[in-house]
Amino acid sequence: MSSSKPTPNSHQPTAKKRRFLTADKKFQIYLEAQNPAVPVGEILRREGLFSTDLARIRQQVKEGALLRLSVKPGRAKDHSNVSAEAHEALKNELQQKERALADQAVELAILRKKTSGVSWDR
Predict the structure, then answer these.
(1) What is the C-alpha to C-alpha distance for residues 120 and 16, in angstroms, rounded to an integer?
(2) Rounded CA gap, 44 and 93, in Å?
(3) Nearest residue to 42 via CA among 51, 62, 22, 56
(4) How far apart are the first and last CA of the chain?
C-alpha cells in the first residue's frame, strides 16, 4: 500500500520564481489598494506580494506622477543620453562632412567659372 505523502527523499524544494509586474499591473494594484473598501491584505495575498512591494509600487507611482507633473508646458524636449564617445564620434563625422561640403562648393565654383567663359586672369 502506497502512502499519499511524499517521502522526504523524493520531495524537491521548489525555488520561488521572481515575478515581474508590468507597469499597468502595478498601477492597477496601486488603484485597488487606494480603495478603502478593499482590505490591503486581501490584495497582497491574491497578488502574492508583500507590504514592502506595495510600498515600492506606491513610491514609483509618486515619483512618476511628480516627474510628469514637473514638465513645463510647451514642446517636449528629447533628453536621450548619448555617451561621450558617441558624441565625439558624431562631432568628428559632422566636421568631416562639413569639410567635404566646403571642398565640393569650391569645385562647383571652379566648374561654373570654366563653363561660363570667365577667365582666371582678370
Answers:
(1) 84
(2) 54
(3) 51
(4) 118
Measured CA to CA, the distance from residue 97 to residue 103 in angstroms comes to: 10
Decide: 74 and 67 in contact? Cβ < 8 Å.
no
What is the pTM (predicted TM-score) of this model? Answer: 0.48
Q: Scanning the structure block, which residue is given the C-alpha cell 505523502?
A: 5
- In whole angstroms, how far apart are CA 27 and each of 24, 34, 73? 5, 11, 25
pLDDT in tens, 48-84: 999 999 999 999 999 999 999 988 887 766 667 888 8
Cα maximum dimension of the chain: 118
What would the grid cell of residue 107 be? 569645385
Alpha helix locations (H) across the chain? 23-34, 40-47, 51-69, 84-116
